[in-house]
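Work Package 4 report. The design task specified in the project plan requires that, given a folded chain encoded as structure tokens, an amino acid be chosen for each position. We show below one input record used in the internal validation round.
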């Protein structure tokens, strides 16, 4: 557990395990703890870097406007500073969009690429959903109620049928001592609003795994299918879940990543 100053920001990061380096990029609203369900399995095979992006968790920057390009630069700068040579890059959701740019901008610096439940451009319906949760925070609506409105967008039927799953997710979110501020949530939202890498991803030559959930309504299955068809050296894998693949099918996604990256 440490922090490192790069690109005029102090980044919180953790390194776990041994082996070939693997950098995990979390998505919108999520800090490094998003990846904890997968950590034990991945650390048996790789040296895993988890970290907090700008505008979330314990990373502190100058409160500047965010772009996917900036966050992609951050990923490679972190890897370079920590002497992680030729790392695999895996991103979920917004992190998957950033991972696509890492592969476009730094093909010589990375090994394999994993894109989980993501897209090259976020749909208007998704952006409006995110904007509505921001509006509720602006109105000081109880965070429990906000989470109640968001949970059905994230998880699939089997997960949602179990009240304990929802309660645990809400507890983890609300008890996070570094809960994302409204201002930082807005900064990440504006990044997603502007992001569009559809004209770039055909340049990716890195071996790529594109994974999606059959019930995902944030990054629809056809968006992952588009990625796998447009990225020249990509393979597609589906899972019976929604957007919360790390929580819904933990062992299956961990095994898929280990098998693909090794």
């Amino acid at each position: 557990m440490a922090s490192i100053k790069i690109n005029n920001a102090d980044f919180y990061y953790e390194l776990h395990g041994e082996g070939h380096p693997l950098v995990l990029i979390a998505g919108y609203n999520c800090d490094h703890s998003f990846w904890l369900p997968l950590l034990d399995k991945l650390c048996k095979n790789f040296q895993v870097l988890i970290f907090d992006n700008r505008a979330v968790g314990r990373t502190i920057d100058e409160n500047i406007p965010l772009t996917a390009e900036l966050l992609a630069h951050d990923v490679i700068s972190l890897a370079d500073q920590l002497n992680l040579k030729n790392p695999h890059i895996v991103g979920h959701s917004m992190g998957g969009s950033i991972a696509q740019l890492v592969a476009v901008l730094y093909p010589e610096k990375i090994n394999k690429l994993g894109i989980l439940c993501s897209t090259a451009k976020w749909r208007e319906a998704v952006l409006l959903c995110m904007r509505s949760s921001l509006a509720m925070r602006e109105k000081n609506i109880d965070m429990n109620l906000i989470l109640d409105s968001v949970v059905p967008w994230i998880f699939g039927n089997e997960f949602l049928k179990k009240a304990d799953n929802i309660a645990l997710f809400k507890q983890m979110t609300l008890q996070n001592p570094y809960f994302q501020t409204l201002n930082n949530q807005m900064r990440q939202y504006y990044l997603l609003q502007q992001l569009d890498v559809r004209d770039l991803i055909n340049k990716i030559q890195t071996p790529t795994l594109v994974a999606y959930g059959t019930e995902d309504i944030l990054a629809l299955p056809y968006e992952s299918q588009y990625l796998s068809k447009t990225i020249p050296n990509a393979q597609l894998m589906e899972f019976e879940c929604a957007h919360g693949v790390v929580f819904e099918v933990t062992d299956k996604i961990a095994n898929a990543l280990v098998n693909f990256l090794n």
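The chain has one domain: 2-261. Validation will be extended to a larger panel in the next phase.
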